[in-house]
Amino acid sequence: MSYDLQVWSVRPFDHSAFGRPEIWQRSSGASVHARKNWQIVVSASDRVLPEDVPNEVSKVLPGIEWLTNLNLEGKPTAEAIRLVQSAATEIARFGHGAVIDQQDASIRLPSGVKRLMSPRSKETFDIVSLSWWFLDSRSASGEGRERLVDLLERVLPEVLPKRYGLYEPPQHVYAQTGREHFLKFLDENLHDTKVWYPHRPVVSVYLSLPSPLGAHKLGFRTNCFRIEVEKQALIEPGWAAVIKHLWRQVSVLIDPIYGDVRVLGNYMWMGASVSAGEEHPIKAWWWAGIPKELGNAVVLGSVYQKLWPAFARASTLVHGLAFASLDDWTTRDDLADKVGQPPQEQIQLPDRFSGIMNAETYREYQAELRRVGAHNLRRKYPSGWPFGEPFTQ
To answer: Which of 10, 232, 243, 366 could form an S-S bond across to 96 if both were Cys, CB 3.0 to 4.6 Å?
Structure first.
């Protein structure tokens, strides 16, 4: 009979994790402490996939990638149990992990190991913005939204709202109303602007499903989904891995025409939400072509893979989507340096009067409007625009 513990961690076990490494003997990749009537065997860490991690573990720590087994064999004396538990705690602290006691399925974290370490910033800070633009998608259906909520709950529950509604301050509290009410709220307010307060380190979530899609009197509209996360979180153990996993999983579920990841600056907490900082080059649902600066990662759907074959060749293909990424998502480096610039005929053209106007720009806009008329002041689209007429008559 044995006494078994598991350590699920961000980093793999290393012999130096032990407070007294001299009492452990290395044997065929394992570390062993043997006595007359018992011995403890700490096996080498095994790499695990995100779907292999128990839900109860992923809820307490993000980005778990390694499993280490500890087995107490022989007579489980009080001294032996104390030592194996102490060893598991040291390994978990070293690897930023959680300990599961196989005897009663309990989970514990060593002191100093927390899901999120950094406090809320009192100064301006950077965010990492994950964005997707999509047309026909399973996520625009009731079943698709349910699958999206399931995915967020499983991979990164901080994205789900603590409060939500149609206006400020949002009237519904998720902990009280629950998942089914939230899904019903999305169904009943599908095309409305929604207020969605997530949990730190997620700072904002934007889900826009306009009707109709495509050509509109003001330009071309797509569905848009955006998740913004404090950049500082990606420096903490496990967070970069879980954010990258979320990026790929949401992409596969949504099947976007285009998606990207980029760092944006000058944000600041204002109560439960953040003030507007640096803007994304694509404004909300107004899709007008690929940005010239790509950011840290890009995913392309089938339409743009055909129009940008060099990107498709330099990327990884997963479920029909082409992914390319920098290793570090906390930098201001540009993926274009790795995969090349988008084709000139697919790059979005500058829009002189988009975004927030100051008083001077607004006067210029009004003067130009009187001079050329509203129809001629419409946004210009790239020459290789693949989605038909962007404007309704």
So the answer is: 10
- Residue 343 tokens, joined: 């084709």
| CATH number of the CATH domain containing 89 | 3.30.70
| pLDDT tens by residue, 325-375 | 999 999 999 999 999 999 999 999 987 656 555 778 778 777 877 887 766
How many angstroms separate the CA atoms of 260 and 250, rounded?
A: 12
Looking at the structure, tell me whether residues 309 and 257 fall in a common domain: yes
Distance between CA atoms of residues 335 and 313, nearest Å: 14
Show the tokens assigned to 175.
Answer: 């902990």
Residues near 321 by Cβ (< 8 Å), separated by ≥ 6?
A: 251, 252, 255, 256, 299, 300, 301
Global model pTM greater than 0.85: yes
In terms of Cα–Cα distance, which of 59, 87, 60, 57 is closest to 72?
87
One-letter amino acid at 18 equals F
Nearest to 134 by CA among 247, 222, 251: 222
Q: How far apart are CA 91 and CA 13, in angstroms?
A: 6
Mean pLDDT confidence for 29-57? 95
Residues 6+ apart with CB under 8 A from 277: 124, 127, 264, 265, 266, 267, 268
Task: Give residue 85's domain range.
Answer: 2-108
Please give the residue that has the higher pLDDT: either 275 or 129.
129
- The answer to whether position 8 is within a domain reads yes
CA distances from 64 to 55, 97, 115 (A): 11, 7, 11
